[in-house]
């Protein structure tokens, strides 16, 4: 595919581009994934938003042990390890790190970066409920973030620039949505793994270039007919799907099934809702990023998430749910007992929970369990 | 079968006879059997200083609470549960609304009763593990016990759960699990620890206001479920209950900190530590116990008696063990004087008048003034203040491995203390709520080596 080739070329040169821009005085603003940090605001401040989304490697997890006890979520420990190992260049380029505090695991990332590095870290809280007070708190956090970005970059976030950025990101979200919906059919033109990789690329790529590539990709995919899915259609859900952590995709495919849709708290770009580019723009951002966003498992209550997943499963003709969580992400682990019960009762769907600490030794047992699960689905 | 045990716990014979039907019923529900009694007697005799009347009375208060918990449904009209880290004044105020309402910190009561006294917590922890807080996932033992008690049918299903979510994540996830499995009405009290690095002790007003608002939300829900109005008087009584007990504990802890030799064991002090966070049916008895213990401690200090050799190395010890008295005893047996423990002492930041004026904001501001609760930078500063002000010779940063907010801190704090104060620091992975993997025996080797190091430094 031409668009994918262009994307590869762009991503190959992205590090050089970021380094060059930074040397010219443009600030690189790193942020933690999860869909609560509006990239539009960073972009409108004249800085470059770059998501810290690498994962799947064991070495950074092991490295983090020198800085924080091991009982923190694997992905969050990795974010400490990548920075401290100094061999992941993008992590060394960050001038300011923004961490939306969603839970204690994410707070651990902010605290360790503050203590062990000289990077300026800005925290803004994400209340774990959608009541009015929670919304107002999140909105207040965005206003403090705006002040921080303006003082850090020296650039005012003017409405005109912010509106332009919102429109750019709205286009990106709309394109992602259209591409994702193409997977409803029997012959999805894009695989689950390709979609995940595309989503990850969007968190690092230059936004205007990326949107242009997505436009082309959509046109190409509309004309393309993928192979017919012979086995069960799978919904992949969980806490974090990091860039580089693609091990479940070949395991599912190898067992004769295909992941046709995914729902993650972190790692897959939120694309279901756009921001209204009129009126008070910060409020409009808060409305979409907080109120409309599907609540992750760390929300209380978070049963809306289950309904959302069930709707996705129905829309995408899903036959089984693969729950992929990372070790010590307690909110997800504690949601599984009633999640599994509810999806069975409400939609007669079966679920398999697998867990990872980014360790190569997991792959064998994981393969066996996924194969057994897919086989079980095939006999229903 | 249990008369002697209750005597050890400060009960008079007439009281035991009067309470016998309740005790029999409660023990039946809690699964306490004949063979559990000798073990409890042995544990109480070996780990608590029963020569002190105040200690016996502390045990009495917890035994009362343990009996009241399984019977709460039949003895009260409305039942409300919560647990740490719920701030004391909220539950105390609700407790003061009416004698018709049972409000209890169930995990804490089970920890103190089934853990400290009966050493029979494992079935509860296992029930919590089987219900959703699985083995090997570093889930909090307190919340495993909280869930386990309900899942095992030891304690009744409540009318309301108040889920405190402002410091850690586990309460709301655990209570949400219970709410979905048992259809229990639940109010979630949210919190967001997003103040910036180095900001403590300056706590953001928006943070205090949000958390105060969440507390008011819980009050409203309690009123709605119970049908009672939370008067200003009940609020004030709740605050006074918390404060009076805390001040008594604080006085006692400070006396022990200043005593050399260390006058009483921290195993005994731990029995009093939880009073200010837990609604008690007999608050007066608890305060009386503390007053007696203060008097008895003073007498010991005057006589020069203690539980650790005079002149022993002074340390900061970063944890209190809610379920197991043997770990503090082990540290003391190795000749270390835990001069200041966990969050016992009030730093100068905490004794200043609050900047908030609203009841719930004042409560939350007090909570966040404890640096370890506020942030890692606040926690580091807080622990350094403890070590500096008490001029300790070493620090044991024992942290509960399954407590994510607390576990963020120790490695950073070790580096900071070493750099700023130049004293040895031991980071000790442990657990305050579940000692199956972190028993006194298991931890002893590392503490022993550290104790030797401190003694050598002192001798040099």
Structure description:
The complex is a heterodimer of chains A (380) and B (460). The relative contact order of chain A is 0.13. In chain A, strand 3, helix 6 and strand 4 form a beta-alpha-beta unit. Chain A has helices at 2-23, 39-44, 58-64, 74-85, 89-93, 104-116, 132-153, 159-181, 192-202, 207-223, 248-254, 281-292, 303-315, 330-347, 363-378, and strands at residues 28-31, 48-51, 96-101, 120-125, 233-240, 258-266, 320-326, 350-356. By secondary structure, chain A is an alpha/beta fold. In chain A, helix 7 (132-153) crosses helix 12 (281-292). In chain A, the strands form 2 sheets. Chain A has a 4-stranded parallel β-sheet, with helices on both faces. Chain B is globular, with a radius of gyration of 21 Å. Chain B is α/β, with parallel strands linked by helices and 460 residues long.
Main features:
heterodimer, A: 380 residues, alpha/beta, four-stranded parallel β-sheet, 15 helices, 54% helix, B: 460 residues, 21 helices, 9% strand, globular
Short description:
The complex is a heterodimer of chains A (about 375) and B (about 450). Chain A is α/β, with parallel strands linked by helices.
Q: What share of residues are in beta strands of chain B?
A: 5-15%
The number of helical segments of chain B is 21
Distance between the termini of chain A: 37 Å
Secondary-structure element sequence of chain A? Answer: HEHEHHHEHEHHHHEHEHHEHEH
The SS-based structural class of chain B is alpha/beta
Shape of chain B: globular
Helix share bin of chain A: 40-55%
Tell me the Rg of chain A in angstroms: 20 Å
Instruction: Note the main sheet of chain B.
Output: 4 strands, parallel
Query: What is the residue-mean pLDDT of chain B, rounded to a whole number?
Result: 96
- Uncertain runs of chain B with pLDDT below 50, 5 residues or more? none
User: What general form of chain A does the structure show?
Assistant: globular
Through-space gap between termini of chain B: 54 Å
Helix content of chain B: 55-70%
Number of strands of chain A: 8
Number of helices of chain A: 15
């Amino acid at each position: 595919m031409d668009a994918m080739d262009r994307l590869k070329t762009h991503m190959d040169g992205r590090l050089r581009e970021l380094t060059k821009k930074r040397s010219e005085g443009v600030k690189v603003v790193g942020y933690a994934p999860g869909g609560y940090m509006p990239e539009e605001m960073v972009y409108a401040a004249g800085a470059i938003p770059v998501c810290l989304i690498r994962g799947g490697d064991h070495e950074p997890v092991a490295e983090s042990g020198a800085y924080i006890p091991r009982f923190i979520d694997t992905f969050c420990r990795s974010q400490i390890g990548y920075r401290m190992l100094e061999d992941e260049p993008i992590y060394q380029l960050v001038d300011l790190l923004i961490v939306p505090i969603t839970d204690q695991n994410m707070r651990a990332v902010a605290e360790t970066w503050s203590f062990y590095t000289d990077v300026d870290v800005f925290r803004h809280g994400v209340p774990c409920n959608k009541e009015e007070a929670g919304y107002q708190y999140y909105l207040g956090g965005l206003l403090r973030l705006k002040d921080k970005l303006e003082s850090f970059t020296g650039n005012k976030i003017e409405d005109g620039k912010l509106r332009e950025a919102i429109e750019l990101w709205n286009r990106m979200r709309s394109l992602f949505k259209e591409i994702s919906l193409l997977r409803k059919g029997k012959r999805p033109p894009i695989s689950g793994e390709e979609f995940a990789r595309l989503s990850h690329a969007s968190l690092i790529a230059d936004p205007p270039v990326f949107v242009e590539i997505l436009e082309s990709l959509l046109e190409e995919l509309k004309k393309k007919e993928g192979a017919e899915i012979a086995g069960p259609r799978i919904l992949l859900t969980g806490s974090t799907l990091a860039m580089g952590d693609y091990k479940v995709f070949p395991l599912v495919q190898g067992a004769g099934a295909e992941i046709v849709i995914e729902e993650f708290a972190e790692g897959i770009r939120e694309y279901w809702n756009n921001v209204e580019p009129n009126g008070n723009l910060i409020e409009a951002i808060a409305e979409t990023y907080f109120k409309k966003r599907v609540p992750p498992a760390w929300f209380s209550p978070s049963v809306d998430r289950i309904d959302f997943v069930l709707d996705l499963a129905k829309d995408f003709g899903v036959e089984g749910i693969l729950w992929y969580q990372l070790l010590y992400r307690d909110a997800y682990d504690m949601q599984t007992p009633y999640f599994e019960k509810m999806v069975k009762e409400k939609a007669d769907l079966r679920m398999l929970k697998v867990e990872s600490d980014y360790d190569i030794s997991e792959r064998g047992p994981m393969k066996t369990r996924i194969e057994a699960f897919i086989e079980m689905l095939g006999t229903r | 079968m249990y008369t002697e045990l209750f005597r050890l716990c400060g009960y008079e014979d007439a009281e035991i006879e009067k309470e016998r039907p309740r005790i029999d019923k409660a023990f039946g529900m809690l699964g306490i059997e004949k063979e559990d009694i000798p073990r409890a007697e042995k544990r109480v005799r070996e780990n608590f200083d029963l020569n002190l009347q105040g200690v016996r009375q502390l045990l009495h208060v917890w035994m009362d609470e343990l009996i009241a918990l399984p019977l709460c449904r039949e003895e009260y009209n409305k039942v409300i549960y919560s647990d740490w880290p719920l701030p004391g004044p909220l539950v105390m105020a609700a407790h003061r609304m009416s004698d018709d309402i049972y409000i209890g910190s169930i995990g804490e009561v089970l920890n103190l009763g089934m853990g400290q006294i009966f050493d029979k917590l494992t079935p509860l922890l296992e029930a919590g593990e089987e219900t959703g807080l699985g083995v090997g996932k570093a889930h909090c033992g307190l919340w495993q016990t909280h869930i386990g008690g309900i899942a095992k049918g030891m304690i009744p299903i409540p009318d309301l759960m108040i889920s405190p979510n402002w410091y850690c994540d586990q309460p709301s996830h655990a209570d949400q699990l219970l709410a979905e499995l048992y259809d229990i009405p639940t109010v979630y009290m949210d919190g967001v620890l997003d103040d910036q690095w180095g900001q403590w002790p300056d706590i953001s007003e928006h943070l205090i206001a949000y958390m105060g608002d969440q507390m008011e939300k819980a009050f409203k829900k309690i009123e709605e479920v119970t049908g009672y109005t939370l008067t200003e008087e009940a609020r004030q009584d709740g605050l006074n209950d918390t404060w009076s007990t805390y001040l008594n504990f604080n006085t006692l802890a400070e006396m022990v900190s200043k005593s050399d030799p260390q006058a009483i064991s921290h195993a005994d002090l731990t029995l009093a530590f939880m009073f200010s966070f837990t609604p008690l049916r007999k608050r007066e008895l608890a305060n009386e116990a503390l007053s007696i213990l203060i008097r008895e401690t003073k007498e010991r200090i005057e006589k020069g008696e203690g539980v650790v050799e005079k002149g022993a190395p002074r340390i900061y010890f970063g944890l209190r063990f809610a379920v197991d008295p043997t770990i503090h005893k082990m540290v003391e047996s190795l000749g270390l004087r835990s001069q200041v423990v966990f969050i016992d002492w009030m730093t100068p930041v905490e004794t200043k008048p609050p900047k908030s004026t609203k009841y719930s904001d004042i409560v939350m501001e007090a909570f966040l003034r404890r640096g370890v609760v506020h942030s890692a930078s606040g926690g580091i500063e807080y622990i350094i203040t403890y070590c500096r002000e008490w001029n300790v010779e070493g620090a044991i940063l024992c942290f509960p491995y399954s407590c994510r907010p607390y576990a963020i801190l120790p490695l950073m704090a070790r580096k900071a203390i070493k750099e700023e104060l130049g004293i040895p620091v031991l980071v000790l992975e442990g657990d305050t709520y579940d000692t199956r993997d972190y028993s006194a025996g298991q931890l002893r080797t590392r503490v022993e080596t550290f104790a030797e190091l401190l003694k050598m430094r002192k001798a040099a």
